[in-house]
Amino acid sequence: MITRNLLSLKLEGQHRISKESLASPAAAGEIETSLEALARVDSIDAALKLEAKAASAYWGAWRDVS
C-alpha cells in the first residue's frame, strides 16, 4: 500500500525529531506505537487515523519549544 509507505517515512522523520531534537520521549513513544501499528493496517482510513494520532503527539511536543 503506497499510503502506508508514505506515512511510514513521514512518521519515521517525526519520530527521529521527537527523540533527538525535541527530547520528547512521550511523543517519540506515541509515534513509535503508531508506526508499529501502521505496518499492520489494511485500509487507508485506518492508516490515516494512526497518522493523526502520531501527528497530535508530534505537534504537541512542539508546544514546549521556546
Description:
The chain is built from three helices and no strands. It is mostly helical. It has one domain (about 15-60). Helix 1 (about 1-20) packs antiparallel against helix 2 and helix 1 runs parallel beside helix 3.
Overall pLDDT metric = 94
- Low-pLDDT stretches: none
Helix-residue proportion = over 70%
Q: What's the shape?
A: elongated
Summing up helix and strand content along with how strands pair, one would put the structural category as mainly alpha
Helix-strand string: HHH
Q: N-to-C terminal Cα separation, in Å?
A: 38 Å
The total strand number stands at 0
Strand content of the residues, in percent? under 5%
Give a short account of the largest sheet: none
Provide a count of the helices. Answer: 3
Rg of Cα set: 11 Å
Task: Tally the structural domains.
Answer: 1
Features:
66 residues, mainly alpha, 0% strand
Q: What order do the helices and strands come in, and which of them pair?
A:
Elements: H1 2-20, H2 25-38, H3 44-62
Describe, in short, the structure shown.
The protein is mainly alpha-helical.
